[in-house]
Amino acid sequence: MLRRMGLFRSIVVGADFSECSTVALRQALRMAGWPGPAATRVHAVHVVDALVVEELAEATGQADVRGRVQRDVEDAWRQWREGVPGAENLPLEVLVDDRIHGILEQARAGQAELVVMGAYGSRMPDVGGGTVATACVREAGMD
What we know:
Number of strands: 4
Distance between the termini: 8 Å
């Protein structure tokens, strides 16, 4: 059953700093502003693929790759969100995980009733659902 406008208590939005992700964040913030009985929380999440972090650690020999990646993503987030009205104070959860698992786990942990993601990713062609968004839809299930 679809929720009526204004009744979302929690929305998770996937943020990868792409143009589509900007649209998704704007849409999540717009929906959070719909009138309703309770305030809607928006949770932004960025997932760094665990294999990338492991390979980077191995290639550089650095022990604190996760910390460095976390700081780099947080810096990129602060700069990127400046272009999205209403996102100035929105925190970002940075996870190192499989991207699909990380987004869905964040949605479950935040008891999100909606996950908002960009329509397509950074790979060609720019049509249809991206691989991460499509997999999240397929794996999420419905209550």
